[in-house]
Amino acid sequence: MTPRLRRLALLGVAAVFGVAASAPKEPLPPYSGAYEPQTVDERGLWMQLDEAERTLRDSAFVLKEPGLTDYVRAVLCRTVGADRCRGIRIYVMRDPEFNARMAPNGMMVVNSGLLIRVHDEAELAAVLGHEFAHFEQRHSLHRFQHDRSMTDVVAWMSVIAASGASYQVRRSAVDVANSAVGSMFAFGRDEEREADLLGAKYMLAAGYDPNALPDIWNRAMDEADATAFGRKQKSHRYDRLSFFASHPTSLERATYLRTLVAGMGQGDAGRDALQGAVKPLRGAFLADQIKLNDFGGTEYLFGQLAGDTWDAELLCARGDLYRTRGNPRDLVSAAGFYAQAIALDPTNADAYRGLGLAQLRGGDSHGGDALKRYLALRPDAPDRAMIQTLLP
Prior knowledge:
Layout: H1 3-22, H2 40-57, H3 66-80, H4 82-85, E1 89-93, E2 100-102, E3 107-111, H5 112-117, H6 121-136, H7 139-161, H8 167-206, H9 212-230, H10 250-261, H11 271-290, H12 295-306, H13 312-325, H14 328-344, H15 349-361, H16 367-377, H17 384-388
């Protein structure tokens, strides 16, 4: 999308939102229903996706938690409306990466890593609305068709370039091939912008806080910087677009979405509703995050989740993060976090376990007492046999 077209798109949607800001419940355009495959290629693609969905449905990584799945569905239905939501199948995956995606056949996959990163229901609605916008606009199908055409062009140009023709012909063939490859990625970036804008329209019609849109991308950049810092790497250049990038930069998205929502006021955030839905599984999601071996990004994420108040579960997870890295100073910090967790919740068996392991690893014999307390609080601990080998 050229800068001029982008400005026009923003102005056009802003005009729509200007009306919607005074009437947040403005209905969405009529929905014609989910697209059905028409051609042989499309029917083949749908068959592959249906088979992939059958495999996914039986996967051990799909959470069988009806309460959480029903909650995510309720947020999607409120965001895009009951007509659009009908027929969508939602699968919540136990995957710590920040992601959600939707296939042309109506299958939506939501990662657990998304659920612990969004701060409230409005932010979850922003991501779900964006993915549904891809579905409604048939972006995946268009990209499939576009990529097939462009790969045909690349294949023919490669044949010409290798045919031994003159230098000018070979050079032209290579240029055309490179342009075709570039168009495949540029095509995806334009669709991402379109999905961002349509997703914003869903949110406003549903009465969600539009400020959630840019907030997500601002924190995504901060977390990526924290990851880079923790790994002693350079910060990402959010103002520079890679040739192979299929998405706009996070900075570009945060900027045009912030411009879009400026002056629209506040909508419903729904923080308590989201926290209540995720709370039963949050401990498992935090443990998955620690296994990513991303100390900087995880420390940033935990700080964001805590805000001004660290609860016992988050302190225990922070202790696990430091104990896992395992530097001598980390073990001291971990023991301190576990002790704070125990002070807040004296029945927290996991905190005693972590405290005992951190102390023993750091050469402190008092760790045995903490491990005994752990076994007393959790007599059916699955690692009882292993823990007992550490006791005198």
